[in-house]
Design a protein that fits this description.
- It is a single chain.
- By secondary structure, this protein is an alpha/beta fold.
- Among the domains are: 155 residues, Rossmann fold; 100 residues, Rossmann fold, CATH 3.40.50.
- A 4-stranded parallel β-sheet has the order 7-6-5-8. The chain has a 3-stranded parallel β-sheet with strand order 9-10-11, sandwiched between helices.
- Strand 1 and strand 2 form a beta hairpin.
- The longest helix is centred in the middle third of the chain and has 17 residues.
- The protein is globular.
- It starts with 39 loop residues before the first helix and ends in a 14-residue tail after the last helix.
- 55% of the residues are buried.
- This is Threonine ammonia-lyase.
- Keywords: Lyase, Pyridoxal phosphate.
- Its cofactor is pyridoxal 5'-phosphate.
Length: 382
Protein backbone atom coordinates (compact mmCIF):
# COMPACT_ATOMS: atom_id res chain seq x y z
CA UNK A 1 0.00 0.00 0.00
CA UNK A 2 1.36 3.42 -0.92
CA UNK A 3 2.16 5.91 1.82
CA UNK A 4 2.21 9.71 1.94
CA UNK A 5 5.45 11.17 0.74
CA UNK A 6 6.08 14.86 0.56
CA UNK A 7 4.77 18.27 1.43
CA UNK A 8 6.81 20.97 -0.25
CA UNK A 9 6.17 24.52 0.95
CA UNK A 10 6.08 26.77 -2.12
CA UNK A 11 7.43 30.17 -2.95
CA UNK A 12 7.01 31.69 -6.35
CA UNK A 13 10.74 32.21 -6.68
CA UNK A 14 12.42 28.93 -5.78
CA UNK A 15 10.64 27.39 -2.84
CA UNK A 16 9.40 23.88 -2.61
CA UNK A 17 8.98 21.12 -5.13
CA UNK A 18 10.76 17.97 -6.17
CA UNK A 19 11.67 16.18 -9.34
CA UNK A 20 14.98 14.51 -8.84
CA UNK A 21 16.83 15.80 -5.85
CA UNK A 22 20.13 14.30 -4.86
CA UNK A 23 20.15 12.33 -1.61
CA UNK A 24 22.04 13.70 1.40
CA UNK A 25 24.89 11.22 0.91
CA UNK A 26 25.33 11.68 -2.82
CA UNK A 27 28.33 13.28 -4.50
CA UNK A 28 28.31 16.92 -5.52
CA UNK A 29 27.22 17.84 -9.02
CA UNK A 30 29.40 19.97 -11.26
CA UNK A 31 28.86 23.68 -10.75
CA UNK A 32 28.51 26.59 -13.18
CA UNK A 33 28.63 29.55 -10.81
CA UNK A 34 27.68 33.09 -11.68
CA UNK A 35 28.83 36.18 -9.87
CA UNK A 36 26.64 36.98 -6.90
CA UNK A 37 26.14 40.69 -7.53
CA UNK A 38 23.08 39.95 -9.70
CA UNK A 39 21.42 37.90 -6.97
CA UNK A 40 19.29 39.54 -4.31
CA UNK A 41 19.86 37.38 -1.25
CA UNK A 42 23.43 36.60 -2.22
CA UNK A 43 24.28 40.15 -1.30
CA UNK A 44 21.61 40.99 1.25
CA UNK A 45 21.87 38.23 3.79
CA UNK A 46 21.55 39.76 7.27
CA UNK A 47 25.24 39.06 7.86
CA UNK A 48 27.75 40.90 5.72
CA UNK A 49 30.01 38.70 3.62
CA UNK A 50 33.37 38.24 5.28
CA UNK A 51 35.30 37.81 2.08
CA UNK A 52 36.59 34.51 3.44
CA UNK A 53 35.32 30.96 3.11
CA UNK A 54 33.72 30.85 6.54
CA UNK A 55 31.88 33.13 8.92
CA UNK A 56 33.07 33.78 12.45
CA UNK A 57 30.14 32.58 14.56
CA UNK A 58 29.37 31.70 18.12
CA UNK A 59 27.82 28.30 18.80
CA UNK A 60 24.71 30.14 20.00
CA UNK A 61 24.02 33.58 18.45
CA UNK A 62 22.83 35.07 21.75
CA UNK A 63 22.82 38.59 20.28
CA UNK A 64 19.75 37.58 18.27
CA UNK A 65 17.82 36.70 21.43
CA UNK A 66 18.24 39.96 23.32
CA UNK A 67 14.67 41.16 22.74
CA UNK A 68 13.01 37.81 23.41
CA UNK A 69 10.78 37.70 26.51
CA UNK A 70 11.98 35.29 29.18
CA UNK A 71 9.06 32.95 28.56
CA UNK A 72 10.30 32.38 25.00
CA UNK A 73 13.67 31.04 26.13
CA UNK A 74 14.71 27.56 27.24
CA UNK A 75 18.00 25.86 28.06
CA UNK A 76 19.75 24.39 25.03
CA UNK A 77 22.00 21.34 24.96
CA UNK A 78 24.97 23.36 26.14
CA UNK A 79 23.06 24.97 28.98
CA UNK A 80 22.74 28.31 27.19
CA UNK A 81 19.47 30.13 26.63
CA UNK A 82 17.99 29.46 23.19
CA UNK A 83 14.55 30.19 21.71
CA UNK A 84 11.73 27.85 22.75
CA UNK A 85 10.34 27.46 19.25
CA UNK A 86 7.49 25.19 20.23
CA UNK A 87 6.13 27.91 22.51
CA UNK A 88 6.93 30.68 20.02
CA UNK A 89 5.13 28.89 17.20
CA UNK A 90 2.10 28.04 19.31
CA UNK A 91 1.95 31.67 20.48
CA UNK A 92 2.70 33.12 17.05
CA UNK A 93 0.87 36.27 15.95
CA UNK A 94 0.62 34.99 12.35
CA UNK A 95 -3.14 34.46 12.60
CA UNK A 96 -4.00 37.57 14.62
CA UNK A 97 -5.77 40.77 13.59
CA UNK A 98 -5.55 42.92 11.63
CA UNK A 99 -4.08 40.73 8.87
CA UNK A 100 -5.70 37.49 10.04
CA UNK A 101 -3.73 35.15 7.79
CA UNK A 102 -5.52 31.90 7.07
CA UNK A 103 -4.15 28.36 7.07
CA UNK A 104 -3.11 27.28 3.59
CA UNK A 105 -4.50 24.01 2.21
CA UNK A 106 -2.56 20.77 2.19
CA UNK A 107 -3.36 19.41 -1.26
CA UNK A 108 -2.99 15.82 -2.41
CA UNK A 109 -0.82 15.74 -5.53
CA UNK A 110 -2.82 13.02 -7.24
CA UNK A 111 -0.87 12.77 -10.49
CA UNK A 112 2.59 12.84 -8.92
CA UNK A 113 1.50 10.34 -6.26
CA UNK A 114 0.25 7.97 -8.93
CA UNK A 115 3.44 8.30 -11.00
CA UNK A 116 5.77 7.78 -8.07
CA UNK A 117 3.79 5.11 -6.23
CA UNK A 118 3.56 7.03 -2.98
CA UNK A 119 1.46 9.77 -1.40
CA UNK A 120 2.65 13.34 -2.03
CA UNK A 121 1.03 16.34 -0.40
CA UNK A 122 1.68 19.98 -1.30
CA UNK A 123 1.43 22.88 1.15
CA UNK A 124 -0.17 25.70 -0.83
CA UNK A 125 1.85 28.69 0.33
CA UNK A 126 1.22 30.30 -3.05
CA UNK A 127 -2.30 31.15 -1.84
CA UNK A 128 -1.09 33.84 0.56
CA UNK A 129 -1.74 37.47 -0.46
CA UNK A 130 1.94 37.82 -1.49
CA UNK A 131 2.09 34.31 -3.05
CA UNK A 132 4.75 33.15 -0.58
CA UNK A 133 5.36 31.87 2.95
CA UNK A 134 7.50 34.98 3.58
CA UNK A 135 4.49 36.87 4.89
CA UNK A 136 4.40 34.58 7.93
CA UNK A 137 7.80 35.50 9.33
CA UNK A 138 7.61 39.19 8.43
CA UNK A 139 4.18 39.64 10.00
CA UNK A 140 5.04 37.64 13.12
CA UNK A 141 8.12 39.75 13.80
CA UNK A 142 6.46 43.08 13.05
CA UNK A 143 3.35 42.28 15.10
CA UNK A 144 5.62 41.41 18.03
CA UNK A 145 7.42 44.78 18.08
CA UNK A 146 6.94 47.19 20.96
CA UNK A 147 4.64 50.19 20.47
CA UNK A 148 7.69 52.45 20.32
CA UNK A 149 9.41 50.37 17.63
CA UNK A 150 6.19 50.20 15.61
CA UNK A 151 5.86 53.97 15.72
CA UNK A 152 9.45 54.51 14.51
CA UNK A 153 8.97 52.09 11.62
CA UNK A 154 10.85 49.24 10.00
CA UNK A 155 13.29 48.82 7.13
CA UNK A 156 14.43 45.94 4.98
CA UNK A 157 16.40 45.34 1.81
CA UNK A 158 14.74 43.06 -0.72
CA UNK A 159 13.12 43.05 -4.13
CA UNK A 160 11.34 39.74 -3.72
CA UNK A 161 8.61 38.10 -1.67
CA UNK A 162 10.12 39.28 1.63
CA UNK A 163 9.78 42.90 0.52
CA UNK A 164 6.12 42.38 -0.27
CA UNK A 165 5.58 40.60 3.04
CA UNK A 166 7.09 43.51 4.97
CA UNK A 167 5.09 46.05 2.97
CA UNK A 168 1.77 44.28 3.46
CA UNK A 169 2.46 43.65 7.15
CA UNK A 170 3.29 47.33 7.64
CA UNK A 171 0.10 48.39 5.90
CA UNK A 172 -2.01 46.05 8.04
CA UNK A 173 -0.32 47.00 11.32
CA UNK A 174 0.01 50.71 10.63
CA UNK A 175 3.81 50.50 10.74
CA UNK A 176 5.81 52.68 8.31
CA UNK A 177 7.75 50.20 6.18
CA UNK A 178 10.76 51.24 4.12
CA UNK A 179 12.11 48.84 1.50
CA UNK A 180 15.51 49.57 -0.05
CA UNK A 181 16.11 48.26 -3.57
CA UNK A 182 18.89 48.74 -6.11
CA UNK A 183 18.33 51.27 -8.90
CA UNK A 184 18.26 48.39 -11.39
CA UNK A 185 15.25 46.69 -9.78
CA UNK A 186 12.55 45.94 -12.41
CA UNK A 187 9.63 48.35 -12.21
CA UNK A 188 7.13 45.54 -11.68
CA UNK A 189 8.83 44.63 -8.37
CA UNK A 190 9.00 48.26 -7.28
CA UNK A 191 5.33 48.80 -8.11
CA UNK A 192 4.26 45.63 -6.29
CA UNK A 193 5.84 46.84 -3.05
CA UNK A 194 4.39 50.34 -3.46
CA UNK A 195 0.96 48.85 -4.19
CA UNK A 196 1.13 47.05 -0.87
CA UNK A 197 1.97 50.25 1.02
CA UNK A 198 5.76 50.08 1.21
CA UNK A 199 7.96 53.18 0.95
CA UNK A 200 10.50 52.18 -1.71
CA UNK A 201 13.97 53.71 -1.63
CA UNK A 202 15.99 53.04 -4.79
CA UNK A 203 19.71 53.20 -4.05
CA UNK A 204 22.95 51.86 -5.53
CA UNK A 205 23.80 49.67 -8.47
CA UNK A 206 23.54 46.33 -6.66
CA UNK A 207 22.25 44.78 -3.47
CA UNK A 208 25.48 45.36 -1.59
CA UNK A 209 25.01 49.11 -2.01
CA UNK A 210 21.30 48.86 -1.24
CA UNK A 211 22.00 46.84 1.91
CA UNK A 212 24.51 49.45 3.08
CA UNK A 213 21.84 52.13 2.64
CA UNK A 214 19.36 49.95 4.53
CA UNK A 215 21.73 49.69 7.49
CA UNK A 216 22.39 53.43 7.36
CA UNK A 217 18.66 54.19 7.56
CA UNK A 218 18.27 51.68 10.40
CA UNK A 219 20.91 53.46 12.47
CA UNK A 220 20.13 57.04 11.49
CA UNK A 221 16.34 56.89 11.95
CA UNK A 222 16.12 54.26 14.66
CA UNK A 223 14.20 51.85 12.42
CA UNK A 224 13.91 48.12 13.12
CA UNK A 225 15.53 45.91 10.52
CA UNK A 226 13.27 43.03 9.42
CA UNK A 227 15.56 40.26 8.12
CA UNK A 228 14.30 37.66 5.64
CA UNK A 229 15.35 34.73 7.84
CA UNK A 230 17.84 35.41 10.64
CA UNK A 231 15.60 36.23 13.59
CA UNK A 232 13.75 33.96 16.05
CA UNK A 233 10.40 35.63 15.34
CA UNK A 234 10.88 35.11 11.59
CA UNK A 235 11.88 31.47 12.11
CA UNK A 236 8.86 30.91 14.37
CA UNK A 237 6.56 32.53 11.83
CA UNK A 238 7.74 30.17 9.11
CA UNK A 239 7.43 27.29 11.59
CA UNK A 240 3.65 27.75 11.68
CA UNK A 241 3.68 25.84 8.38
CA UNK A 242 4.68 22.70 10.28
CA UNK A 243 2.03 23.34 12.91
CA UNK A 244 -0.61 23.47 10.18
CA UNK A 245 0.71 20.31 8.54
CA UNK A 246 0.41 18.44 11.82
CA UNK A 247 -3.19 19.60 12.17
CA UNK A 248 -4.04 18.74 8.58
CA UNK A 249 -2.89 15.10 8.56
CA UNK A 250 -4.49 12.27 10.50
CA UNK A 251 -1.23 11.14 12.10
CA UNK A 252 1.84 13.44 11.89
CA UNK A 253 4.09 10.58 13.05
CA UNK A 254 3.04 8.58 9.97
CA UNK A 255 4.69 11.10 7.67
CA UNK A 256 8.01 9.91 6.28
CA UNK A 257 9.37 13.38 5.67
CA UNK A 258 8.80 17.06 5.12
CA UNK A 259 10.82 18.79 2.40
CA UNK A 260 11.43 22.52 2.18
CA UNK A 261 13.69 24.68 0.09
CA UNK A 262 16.62 26.49 1.67
CA UNK A 263 17.81 29.99 0.91
CA UNK A 264 18.88 31.60 4.16
CA UNK A 265 17.46 28.67 6.13
CA UNK A 266 14.55 30.25 8.03
CA UNK A 267 11.86 28.04 6.48
CA UNK A 268 13.54 24.71 7.18
CA UNK A 269 14.68 25.84 10.62
CA UNK A 270 11.12 26.69 11.60
CA UNK A 271 9.70 23.46 10.19
CA UNK A 272 12.35 21.31 11.87
CA UNK A 273 12.00 23.10 15.21
CA UNK A 274 8.30 22.23 15.37
CA UNK A 275 8.30 18.78 13.76
CA UNK A 276 11.07 17.42 15.96
CA UNK A 277 9.11 18.34 19.08
CA UNK A 278 5.67 17.20 17.91
CA UNK A 279 6.45 14.37 15.46
CA UNK A 280 10.10 13.43 16.08
CA UNK A 281 9.96 10.31 13.88
CA UNK A 282 9.26 12.44 10.81
CA UNK A 283 12.39 13.38 8.87
CA UNK A 284 12.91 16.97 7.76
CA UNK A 285 15.03 17.60 4.67
CA UNK A 286 16.19 20.82 3.09
CA UNK A 287 16.49 21.24 -0.66
CA UNK A 288 19.17 23.40 -2.31
CA UNK A 289 20.42 24.01 -5.82
CA UNK A 290 23.82 22.74 -6.88
CA UNK A 291 25.04 26.32 -7.36
CA UNK A 292 23.44 27.65 -4.20
CA UNK A 293 24.26 25.02 -1.56
CA UNK A 294 25.44 27.24 1.30
CA UNK A 295 23.61 25.25 3.99
CA UNK A 296 24.83 21.88 2.76
CA UNK A 297 28.44 23.05 2.70
CA UNK A 298 28.07 24.74 6.09
CA UNK A 299 26.61 21.64 7.75
CA UNK A 300 29.41 19.49 6.35
CA UNK A 301 32.06 21.97 7.48
CA UNK A 302 30.56 22.47 10.94
CA UNK A 303 30.44 26.24 10.51
CA UNK A 304 28.80 28.70 8.16
CA UNK A 305 30.54 28.79 4.80
CA UNK A 306 30.42 31.79 2.47
CA UNK A 307 29.95 30.73 -1.15
CA UNK A 308 32.16 32.73 -3.54
CA UNK A 309 29.40 32.70 -6.16
CA UNK A 310 25.82 31.54 -6.64
CA UNK A 311 23.77 30.72 -9.72
CA UNK A 312 20.87 32.96 -10.80
CA UNK A 313 18.37 30.33 -11.96
CA UNK A 314 16.54 29.80 -8.63
CA UNK A 315 17.13 33.37 -7.51
CA UNK A 316 14.75 33.17 -4.57
CA UNK A 317 17.07 30.72 -2.82
CA UNK A 318 20.39 32.11 -4.08
CA UNK A 319 22.16 32.87 -0.81
CA UNK A 320 25.92 32.99 -0.28
CA UNK A 321 25.74 32.86 3.52
CA UNK A 322 22.94 31.25 5.53
CA UNK A 323 21.66 32.88 8.71
CA UNK A 324 23.29 32.29 12.09
CA UNK A 325 20.12 31.13 13.85
CA UNK A 326 18.82 28.96 10.97
CA UNK A 327 22.24 27.31 10.81
CA UNK A 328 22.22 26.60 14.54
CA UNK A 329 18.78 25.02 14.35
CA UNK A 330 19.45 23.07 11.15
CA UNK A 331 22.78 21.77 12.46
CA UNK A 332 20.93 20.30 15.42
CA UNK A 333 17.66 19.14 13.86
CA UNK A 334 17.80 18.81 10.06
CA UNK A 335 18.02 15.23 8.78
CA UNK A 336 19.85 16.15 5.60
CA UNK A 337 20.05 18.37 2.53
CA UNK A 338 19.13 17.28 -0.98
CA UNK A 339 20.88 18.96 -3.93
CA UNK A 340 19.11 19.56 -7.26
CA UNK A 341 20.49 20.94 -10.51
CA UNK A 342 18.80 23.25 -13.01
CA UNK A 343 17.75 20.43 -15.34
CA UNK A 344 15.97 18.73 -12.46
CA UNK A 345 14.24 21.98 -11.49
CA UNK A 346 13.08 22.46 -15.09
CA UNK A 347 11.74 18.91 -15.17
CA UNK A 348 9.91 19.57 -11.91
CA UNK A 349 8.42 22.79 -13.29
CA UNK A 350 7.09 20.78 -16.23
CA UNK A 351 5.66 18.13 -13.90
CA UNK A 352 3.97 20.76 -11.75
CA UNK A 353 2.64 22.73 -14.72
CA UNK A 354 1.16 19.66 -16.35
CA UNK A 355 -0.30 18.02 -13.29
CA UNK A 356 -0.03 19.94 -10.01
CA UNK A 357 -0.24 23.76 -9.79
CA UNK A 358 2.49 24.11 -7.17
CA UNK A 359 6.28 24.58 -6.74
CA UNK A 360 9.40 23.14 -8.48
CA UNK A 361 12.56 23.11 -6.31
CA UNK A 362 10.96 20.72 -3.82
CA UNK A 363 8.91 18.78 -6.34
CA UNK A 364 12.10 17.62 -7.90
CA UNK A 365 13.16 16.25 -4.57
CA UNK A 366 10.02 14.23 -4.12
CA UNK A 367 10.48 12.44 -7.41
CA UNK A 368 13.90 11.37 -6.31
CA UNK A 369 12.65 10.38 -2.90
CA UNK A 370 11.22 7.14 -4.24
CA UNK A 371 14.60 5.91 -5.50
CA UNK A 372 16.82 3.61 -3.36
CA UNK A 373 18.29 6.18 -0.99
CA UNK A 374 17.87 7.22 2.67
CA UNK A 375 14.66 9.06 1.81
CA UNK A 376 12.86 5.99 0.49
CA UNK A 377 11.35 4.65 3.66
CA UNK A 378 8.32 2.54 4.33
CA UNK A 379 6.29 5.23 6.04
CA UNK A 380 4.74 8.39 4.63
CA UNK A 381 6.42 11.68 3.88
CA UNK A 382 5.30 15.29 3.95
Amino acid sequence: MSTPVAIPPRERSGSATLSSARSPNSNSLSRSPVTATTIEYASTAPQASTGHDEAQDEDVPAHLYQKLPRQYLEKGKGGQDVPDYLRMILMSKVYTAPLNLQETPLTHAVNLSKRLGCEIWLKREDLHPVFSFKIRGAYNMMASLSAEDKARGVVTCSAGNHAQGVALSGKALGIPATVVMPLSTPSIKVNNVRRLGGNVVLHGQDFDAAKAECLRLEKEKGLTFIPPYDDPYVVAGQGTIAMEICRQVADPDALDGVFGSIGGGGLCAGIAAYMKRVAPRTAVYGVETVDGDAMDKSLKAGHRVVLPEVGPFADGTAVRLVGEEPFRVCRELLDGVVIVDNDEICAAIKDVFEGEPHSPVSADKQKRARSPNPLARSRSRA
